[in-house]
Fold this protein.
Amino acid sequence: MNSRFSVIGLRLGIAIGALATITMFSGIAANSRAAAPATQPKPAALNGGATYVGEAVCIACHAPQNQQFTHTVHADVFRKNPKDELQQKSCEACHGPGSNHLKNPADPTNRPSLIGFTKEWGTPVATQNNQCLQCHSGGTHMFWDSSLHARNQLACSDCHNPMAKVSDTGLLKKQSINDTCYTCHQQQRAEFAKRSHMPLPEGKMSCVDCHNPHGSTAKAAMKADSVNETCYSCHAEKRGPFLWEHAPVRDNCTTCHSPHGSNHDKLLTVARPFQCQQCHDNTNHQTNLFNAGQLVGGGAAPNSRAIGRSCQNCHSQIHGSNHPAGSRFQR
Amino acid sequence: MKTIFRLSLATLTAIVASRVAASPFATSGAGVGTTLGNKETASTNAARSSDPDWLAIKHTPTGQMFKWPLVVPKLANIARDAAGWEYSGQVEVGYVGGDADERNAQYRMYQDFDQGAYLNNFDLTMKKADGSFLGLSGGAAGRRDQYYGANFGHANSWTVKLYFSETPHVFTDSYKTLWSGLGTETLVLLPGLTPGGTASTAADNAAVAATAANPANRTSLSLTRKRSGARLDLTLSASWKAFASYALEMRQGARPISAVWGNNGGTAPIEIAEPIDYDTRDISAGLSYAAGLNAFNLRWSASIFDNNISTLTFQEPYRIAPQGFTTTPAAGAYTVGRFDLAPSNTSQNVRAEFSRKLPEFFNGAITAVVAAGTWRQDDNLIPYTTVAGITSANVTILPGGDWSTVGSLSRPTAKGKIDTRTADLTLSLNPSPTLNVKMKSRYQESDNNSDPYYAVNPNAVYVDADAGTAGNQTRGLTYAGLTGVWGRPLNDATGSGGVLYGAAATPTGSVVISNKIYSSKQYRLGPTADYQLSKTSNLTGSYERETIERTNRERTKTWDDRFKLGYVNRDLPRNTTLRTSYEYGQRRGSRYVTAYYEDAMSAAIIPMPTTAGANVTSWAVRNNGALRNYQLADRNQQIVNVRLDTMVRPNLDAGLSLQFRESRYPGADYGRGKDSQDSVNLDLSYQPSAKQNIYAFYSYQEGRVRQTSIQQANNVTIGATTPLGVITPENAATIGSAPGGPFYLLNNYWSAKSKDRNHVAGVGFKQEFSKATFNVDYSYTLGRTRLAYQYNTGGAINAANAVFAGDRMPDMAVDASYLDASLRFPLTPRLSARLVYRNQWERIRDWHYRNLDGSPVVAANPAAAPTLVALDGGPMDYRVSWYGVMLQIKL
């Protein structure tokens, strides 16, 4: 690494780190002095200045909802061990104070008197999400505000159904993480149906193994800082660093692989040997046009670079080699 | 109830004891292993009844129907024991018959299913009014896709989650082994095969073919991934949370790889079985705080990967004649080969994230991240070959320098180390209630601090008679402070061209003498603006510049400029939501240097000859000078995304999504010139009542890649006249690597287009009768890939072979059908039956494996060394039909 670049990078990193640290601790200190917990309910700001009525009043009319809600983790938190005043409000912790709703609960024009999480109810998405963020800020939701989903004006309840335990975990709107994601990401669903794919259709992996739908600072909402770090979380044997490295492999796994699925073996973007020949126009056989005649039964002499594993019939350690003679990735 | 409780605890204890301890169904931000289940999970759930008391269909804010909740135990009917535990649960057991034991690798790729008795799944939930809870779940008991989970704790205070999950990965069921010891570090040839082969290649071919044809030697190669973990989550207060997790993943099995001998393209590559015996331990801990204006996360994570089998030694059934490098020993002595497998390594990462709202500064917010990590491995290096006493014409081995010893290496261990650093800062401001502006910046570095490895035998010298070596002939050559014989004997010392002056007194410039160290730095910076046009519509725009600096690559610097416009409207007619975006990206970079690795080649030691008539190809040509690696090439990219969700009727949703992505590489005269992928997707969901649900979907995807190349032709010779001029030492590299020069003759130009087409369609319905529930899911997948090429007859392909080559490869094709049907009906209040029927088939054609399964020894004639010994027959068709009779027992 060029030393000048290293110095610049180091300084930039230190500067940003120092700024973040100073801001963090000064902020925490200031906030401590302010002594105003974020999770304090703000009744005056919600539902037209309504007041809290208590969940018993809600349940009196909404017994079927309560029947489902009781089985959710929210119910356990709110009813059995609330950590603050807001959580004690149970239904109204999310829907806001309900007194104005009671004035005319069946009138559609009175819907602004309560926060709803459905299309039918019509509460602005930002208002809905703010309710969730009262408790679900920070942690893995820290980058929600700058996430792709937030930018596309998604509501939390576009993926979650806090009123019913439809999924095993996460209070999702569908029974699984993958099914929930597929409701918008059908293209990925189609890719997972291809010949080679990650084991999502088999229920052994989920979209959030790689992505954080609540936002991350990496591209494509990846959980790790780079594509390769994401892949290494399962494929640690490819982490190396190897004695002999294959430059594009070190740079980005998606140079050669389509992570969601492919018509080709090993999630490759193009069939071998053509996959490799997009970059390798070196001396020797890399430049040859391998063709149908060179397949077994093709008419001409079969060629090992065309059939079977193609290039990897010889260069089998293509992700890197630790063998002293492994510069060609053959051992 | 006490019995149930004890049983639960016993099960839990067994899980914990059997797998040390476990980790997370990690949160969406940490770790992997976020789901527990298998292929059958969805089928089981689909047959459950819907809650008859639920009121009405509701839609998400986007306009998609929420799934009708499934029936849950009524509050009044939840079982309780004397200690106050409420509990509910179920277990499903039964019998599976039909073709469920099909062994096809495509069918079994990630699942394990067999005929006979089957514990499909179970779950138990226990809760107390004080917030205590315990949950157990699992399924596929005893199968290679089994899974178990447990969680217990106190609501909103602490939670312990445990899990264990197995996943098979079947690579092939048509492997024809020639060895015993599959899955171990040593492969020993079966009786009838001779290590190092015999004097008769024909006899060796016949013996290999006979062994491969023996049905007893046909087997599958697979691995099993067993992941277990434990995670503790603590809610310290409404503001403070902490977690710690541990996970152990073990992978064991074998997979097919190929091993080559000799050189110059290799001789007799043969598919062997690489043993897999990995242990990976993931440990992490973190603390988070969120209250008021501030939030921060601190996290430490480590990953320790151990490969319990570090080398693979295999016996070779052919007599491989060493190709030029060695003079002794002769053919027949090369009986085994040895791979150095993936090295054990460790990784650590420390990360701090912080956010603060700035209500008094344009109602803004700031988020910041700093992270640092390191990846290391320092495996012991193995010698170049297992064959002792190798000598060659121009090299004298000194004591301790035998190529079969570590004395021939420049150092004994790998000394690999990469440090990573990340810093990210985002400032978000709201200058008005309808406008949000963000400025994002990011720095990321992957700093490879590995020690350069030099391929030099410090205990060897060149012989006096080597007239081509400059300087004192009894010493090794010195480069980078190291002295010895440069290069590395290839393929267990059977290859030529790997050692400078190894095969001949004439030097070459293309012997690899050191590795390359790849590092990178990435900078991203750019604003985003989000303007609220109305309460239900937004317009966003963003610009981002991403600059990447790389070491030891064709370009030291590339920069991407990306412009993106987005529009969202959630209140179009018929309650339609539209999300659409257009993105244009342009990548450019610094000067492109094709021969960027000259210091890693013997050209760095031996200057290019300058005498007329000297063949300087190995100095002058590294790659086609007009080829651009698509990872680094100039690129113009456009992406269009459209997503429409509409409520056709209150109980009928339709969703349409389109994506068009096209990348062109304007500076790439050779290599990848263009790629694109277009997708169209349609979803329909109809739910006329709680008792009925119908859905259908269809996706079409088309991907294209276009690439060009020039097949090599003539050598580059000093003094030769070419269409680009007379070759001199000064212009040899320019002319030698240029299209139109002697090496890259324009007549040898060829191009290829790959076109993938995929159709995926599905339909399903669920009907609940007065007591029974019937559910059907069906999907069909069709995939085609056409790879067509163009060339000049007599150029890249001669006239004789053009007859066979035609203009394309045979189409690759995959057709897959999947039908799952379940009929569930109650027998008693606590007992239900579920009848399951599954019909699944796949037809696959891949030209790589055409005609290989029946004739694994591919040779020009019976007496010739094989072109390939393809012991993996490749993917095969299958058709499976099975039924199951399952009993569901409620607790």
